[in-house]
Queue: 2 jobs
Job 1
Amino acid sequence: MSEGENRPSEGSPQAGVVTVSDVQELIRRKEEIEAQIKANYEVLESQKGVGMNEPLVDCEDYPRSDVDLYQVRTARHNIACLQNDHKAIMKQVEEALHQLHARDKEKQARDMAEAHKEAMSRSLGQSEGLSQPQAFAKVNSVSPGSPASTAGLQVDDEIVEFGSVNTQNFQSLHNVGSVVQHSEGKPLNVTVIRRGEKHQLRLVPTRWAGKGLLGCNIIPLQ
């Protein structure tokens, strides 16, 4: 058995990203070192039970003749080296396990954050769907060249907001007519839903070649 046999290699897994297989390899090497330490202690035990510190000379300072001095010294030297190796690899195992644990915690935190973000996004989408403003009237016709046509109103547009009129305060088309009469020449914000999408328009009630100030027919929704 030579000095430094089975020592932890310089390229230990702690230098990079640690995997479960790296930890398993470290544990395998640790167990090998422990087996070698045990084997060397058995060598000492076979030599009259000599341990790591018992003297190898007799009372007259002569080398003991009842033990194999070479085997004892070699076993002691190997044990000392292997114990250092064992201490080093135990540190590597501890650090590798710590890295794995920290990475698992980071992954768990990321997964929770993503799940929370997805839940919030889904909840927001549902809230937007629930809070979608309801239309109170519908565009039945639009005359070419009229203020309504110029503003971009189209047939079947569902009106959500017409100036100050909305679902909350709409009672009849007289509300819309009153707003139009008081807003001649002034832009009105009109919000419509067209094929499921919301559109913001600016309509200026104006006298034109046709009838009325808008040039469109609006009917209330039941």
Job 2
Amino acid sequence: GGDHTITYPILQAVAEKHGPVGLVHVDAHTDTGDRALGEKIYHGTPFRRCVEEGLLDCSRVVQIGIRGSSYDPDPYKYCWDQGFRVVPAEDCWRKSLVPLMGEVRKQMGGKPVYISFDIDGLDPAYAPGTGTPEIAGLTPAQALEIIRGCKGLNIVGCDLVEVAPMYDVSGNTALLGANLLFEMLCILPGVKTM
């Protein structure tokens, strides 16, 4: 629900209970900007704010599907400087993400992990109902591989953000978002599935 700003206070609460957490972040954008229109808190800054407050275990942050426009000439530098693993969308094109998720699982280990899924991580052909669509994104099948690849991790929370109903003329984005949230609920620790 909402834009990606909501993840910042959620991670404040999660870190209060669990300490710094690992993050599996699916998005077209890194959301590590410093400010926009003079504001330090907006949907393009939450993960920079989280780093500044020590809410993330930066050695266990993976950003998947990153691509498109940026306000920074070197949009990945901040992330790399923090120790994040950035997986650009082009590294995902035309392949299964099962092997990537095997690597992510090793990186996350048994410590607490949060999943933050921006619907614009998917190509707008599948999810047009978002405020910042970027072409050449992930497919729904790859989204399922990412989420299902997190099963068995110590997941302490998750979100799905940036669905914008006013841009979702067909309702496909809402349908996709609801299904992805269902999939996230199914992989939470202690949930039994068939």
